From TrEMBL:
The keyword Hydrolase applies. It is an enzyme of class 3 (hydrolase). It comes from Pectinatus haikarae. This is Phosphoesterase RecJ-like protein. Coiled coil: none annotated. Residues 18-155 form the DDH domain.
Length: 318
């Protein structure tokens, strides 16, 4: 059931032993939100354990306490509350199976499947980090440096460092407030922008694959098996495609495994969450994705078709 932020805060106050987890394939919003809440609740005397069913990318090792994340290897008994951040409980992977505690879910994805016992869903928030900021105020917990860095990084990354359309007055005010606790934006963006030599070289390969469709409104780039094997991360590649003049939707098609292809979409106008949902994925209106169980080339064709159809439909609706 959906609850308010103050009802959520009341549930947290009553819980002694708490488990927190973000989604698999963790991003800075999920990890930063988890750590921000971890530091806050630990300070208040709660017994908190944090789990993620994945490795944590090196780029996020600047987050204070990232090494405290455990893999969900065994059952946890006696937890009072399981807090899931930035996705629905199923997306925490095996963490969802190690505890029977009631689930309290905070999320800003419209595509949330609403399976948690208690859900605070705020699709108008740019990041789950913003929700944590709101939650800590509700809990009456004052920020310290570690909490501020974690929550700032969560917010800043999900709004493209205050450039995306989800950036609001609230986003800027929250971030501004966090700077008051010693956060240095340049240190965080430098840590996040740093790339491996091989990955920067791989950008050239990906850029070379760009093709335009639908009268130049769709730009598609591909990272096939060869490219994926050469580099450690394709994070941010889709944003390089997004800047092309006249392009509404940028797509990155990425080899994930034989017959599994990962699709990432960014748009300026088109509702790409609607497209992702039709293909079994989800996300936000202007940033979404899905995994397709088909070959790289089949997936490429399928996505271009689905997007062209959606764009025609949305134009007719205007
Ligand atoms: Mn997020």
């Amino acid at each position: 059931m959906e609850i308010t932020i103050s009802e959520a805060a009341a549930k947290i106050k009553k819980a002694n032993s708490i488990i927190i987890a973000p989604h698999v394939n963790p991003d800075c919003d999920g990890l930063g939100s988890t750590l921000g809440l971890y530091h806050a609740l630990t300070k208040k005397g709660h017994k908190v354990r944090i789990f993620v069913d994945d490795d944590i990318p090196e780029a996020y090792h600047f987050l204070p306490g990232w090494e405290l994340f455990k893999k969900p290897d065994q059952k946890i008994t006696g937890a009072d509350l399981f807090i899931v951040l930035d996705a629905e409980p199923e997306r925490t992977g095996r963490v969802n199976k190690i505890t029977d505690a009631p689930i309290l879910n905070f999320d800003h994805h419209r595509s949330n499947t609403r399976t948690a016992d208690f859900l605070y869903l705020a699709p108008y928030r740019a990041a789950t980090g913003e929700i944590i900021y709101e939650l800590l105020a509700e809990l009456g917990i004052e920020f310290d440096y570690k909490m501020a860095v974690s929550v700032y990084a969560a917010i800043a990354t999900d709004c493209g460092f205050f450039r995306y359309s989800n950036t609001t007055e609230f986003t800027m005010k929250a971030a501004g407030d966090l700077l008051g606790y010693g956060v240095r934006p340049n240190i965080i963006s430098e840590a996040l922008e740093q790339r491996k030599y091989a990955d920067v070289k791989a950008i050239a390969d990906v850029i070379n694959t760009i093709e335009l469709y639908n009268e130049g409104k769709i730009a598609v780039a591909g990272a096939d098996k060869d490219i994926v094997e050469k580099c450690s991360s394709t994070e941010g590649f889709v944003d390089l495609v997004r800047v092309i003049e006249g392009v509404d939707v940028a797509v990155l098609i990425k080899y994930a495994a034989d017959n599994v292809t990962r699709i990432s979409m960014r748009s300026k106008k088109t509702d790409v969450a609607a497209v992702a949902e039709k293909l079994g994925g989800g996300g936000h209106v202007r940033a979404s994705g899905c995994n397709l169980e088909m070959s790289f080339h089949e997936a490429r064709k399928k996505v271009i078709q689905a997007l062209t159809r959606e764009m025609a439909g949305q134009e007719n609706a205007d």
